Amino acid sequence: MTEIAKSVILIVSALFPIVNPLGGSPMFLALTSDYPAQARRALSWQIAINSWILLLGSYFIGTHVLSFFGISIPVVQVGGGLIVISTGWAMLKRPDQDERRDVRRDTSAEDPLRKAFYPLTLPLTVGPGSISVAITLGANAPDHSGFHPLTLIAAVIGSVLIALSVFLCYAFADRLARAVGPSGMNVILRLSSFLLVCIGVQILWNGLRVLLGSVLAH
Fold first, then answer.
1. Are residues 74 and 207 in contact, defined by beta-carbon separation less than 8 angstroms?
2. Which of 50, 120, 134, 164 can pair with 58 through a Cys bridge, CB separation 3.0 to 4.6 Å?
3. Are the C-beta atoms of 195 and 80 separated by less than 8 Å?
4. Band of the pLDDT at 97, cuts 50, 70, 90?
5. Which tens digit of pLDDT belongs to each residue from 192-216?
6. How many CA atoms, within 13 angstroms, populate the side-chain half-sphere of residue 68?
7. Each residue of 160-194: pLDDT tens digit?
8. What are the structural domain ranges in the chain?
């Protein structure tokens, strides 16, 4: 049990700051502001499930998938960084709530789920940074190649805790909006979007630095 607890703490402490569901909740609310609260709750639950599957899959089979296609983690960081930058830039240029009031659309119960995987799960919630960290944790886990039961239990519990935090932060993002008001949410959204662009640039640079270093080494 001690080993499981240590592994769970390691997984949660490594992934939670990168997934950052608290910081992502204003962006989630901005992208789903046209949806009723019930649809937003259902969407939050689907995003949490998607996040759990992505993190767990990256932990256990991420290295094998990348090896099969001949893709290195720096290449994943470059491609993912570009996606994060484009997403953050689009949200940074997004019109204010008042400016979009005239272009609201009707939404059906199924419509929000189309956004559940892209862009709300990937890359806004579980981006290339989270995936690369999960892959690294899985590659360095003890007895990884044999799928040891203790490793499996720790990975499942850790990823469930991350997914649960995503659901709680996203499902109740509207309460945060009521607490800080429209102006406060707009400020938080702009700052979060700018930080998302910066995170994307950092992820891109992390990958480019390794790739350029390998070129210069040869």
1. yes
2. 134
3. no
4. low
5. 788 878 878 888 898 899 999 988 8
6. 5
7. 999 999 999 999 998 888 888 878 877 877 887 88
8. 25-212
Cα separation, 103 vs 20, in Å, equals 30
If pLDDT is split at 50, 70 and 90, which confidence band does 96 have? low
Average pLDDT, the chain: 83
Global model pTM greater than 0.70: yes
Q: Which two tokens stand for residue 19?
A: 């997934």
The sign of the torsion formed by the CA atoms of 204, 205, 209, 212 equals: positive
